[in-house]
Every structure is written in C-alpha cells, then in structure tokens.
Amino acid sequence: VSAVLQALGRVHVAGQDVDWEALYAESGARRVELPTYAFQHQHYWLLEETADRDPASMGLGSAEHPLLGAMVPLPGSDGVVFTGRLAVNTQRWLADHAVGGMVLLPGTAFAELAIRAGDQVGCGRIEELTLSAPLTLPESGGVQLQVSVDGADGSDRRAFVVYTRDEAEPEASWTEHATGVLAPQAAPPSFDLAQWPPAGAEPVELDGFYEEMAGAGLVYGPVFQGLRAAWRHGGDVYAEVVLPESVRDEAERFGVHPALLDAALHAVGVGDFVGEGAALPFAWSGVELYASGASVLRVRVRGVSGGEVSLEVADAAGLPVVSVESL
Q: Catalytic residues per the record (predicted)?
C-alpha cells in the first residue's frame, strides 16, 4: 500500500490527473478547506546571551582571567572587588585535585587569584596569604567567588579576602577561605636555574610517587601529575614539572597555571622537609611573579625552618618565573 501511495504521489506531483475520489471511496476521508491567505512565518531563534556574558553591559570591568569574570572599583575608596564562578564542569582540570574524596581548590589557585588581583592594583608581591577554610567544589553546579581588595595603606600595602558561596543558595552568607596582604614588588629576582640539572645532584626515583600520594589521601588526576624528574643536592630538592598537553594551551591565560605550580610543590614530598605523611600548604609569604605563561618549570626547594620551605621556580631556559620566600 505504501508503495502504491508513493507512486500516486509522484504522478500527481508530475502534473498528471489522479482519481482521488476513487482512491478514498468508502474510506471515510473528506475534503477540507484550506486558508486562502499565505501562512504567517515567524522565527523563534535561540539567541546567545552575549549581554549577560559581557561585564561592560552590567557596568563592570573585565578581570581578564580564567577564574575571575569581572571587577568593580569600590566608590569612596581605591578598593576593588573581583567576582567569578568556579565549577568542575567549566574548569574541568579542577576535578583532578581531590583530597579525602572531595574536589578541593588547590592552594596554588588562591595564590593565582591573589597574583591577578595584585596586578590590577599595582601590587606585584603577595606579602602574606593564609588559607583559613578549604574550598570544596560540588559535583554539579558551582560556587560564586569574590576577591575583595582593600584600599592602600600608607606603605601601599593592601589587605584582601577570598569568599565563596554556593550558587544554589544565593541568600546564604559568604564563607571566608583566605586572607592576605598585597604589596609593591620588591627587588628583581636574584636566582637562575640555567645549569640543569645542577652539577653533583643525585637523581631521585619517582616510580609509584603518585600512587603513594593517593594512599595518603591526595588523589591527583592526570592534569596535576606534572612531576617528571627530581634530584637531591645537599639538603635541597630540584625538580622538573610539566603541564600536560590537555591543558597546555591554557597556560598563557594564567600567571602560573595552578595545576603546574601545584606540581612544583610536589617536589616538597621528595625531600625531608615536612616529615611523614601528606601535607598541604596553608600559609604563603613573599610570593612574586616574574614571568607568565610557562608550561614547563624548573624548581628548587630549600628548607627554611620547622616545616617551612622556600621555592625558586624558573622556566625551561632557567629564567625566573616565581619565587616563594616561605611556604
């Protein structure tokens, strides 16, 4: 039947007469009147919400950073508030940093937020950064983020605070996660790591390193498994870390990609700086960024005192990228 109807349709379209009454006899079919006017055509296209994504359309400035969407100067002072949104479905690399079964924003991301805020207000040095509460990210949805930077004091130092709240609860109070002080950049860097690896340094076997970390509760996914080689020289540890190809094109958007700088901190676990067991940094002092966009780093870790270390970090050519006086 279907083949017969298709054939009759082709005959009709070709301009030949078809006895439709005979075809539909005793079928109950009847003729219906069609409108004599042209059908009205109206389109309902789904338009991109470009206005909502443009900070300028909402009276805000662009923060020009992957973790921060907008910024607004505070009237009556020279303070600034930066806003953003963190979610594992948009910043997928965050899902590769899990502690105790929960996705945790790494301390290096807080440092990156402070570096960007400092750049905006003319402060090239994180004098202090203290993490006061962990920032866990939900499996679905995200959190609203604010970085509030005060006006400058008499020595051009600025206090700052990092807050978040669950975007599903817009009436909820904000949680304080980190506090610190920004300051003008001090002296130019006085180190270089051009000789690599250092003469006399002894290689360290890294097989099973990340498996041991996972056993201690620090589960690093592929993006955060950047430690490629390590050496010991005296009491210092030297390491080479690489940002995986899957996120390497994002490197230029950050001062230092948090996953890459976090991998640099893994060198601390190679030495005898913090005793047995896993450790996460919670207090930073004297952090300065000298170059941005690196995807390969050379790292020197030195013990300072009582569980504290200092870091000197360079690019693949040995030129300074970032330094940390105390971690």
A: 97, 262
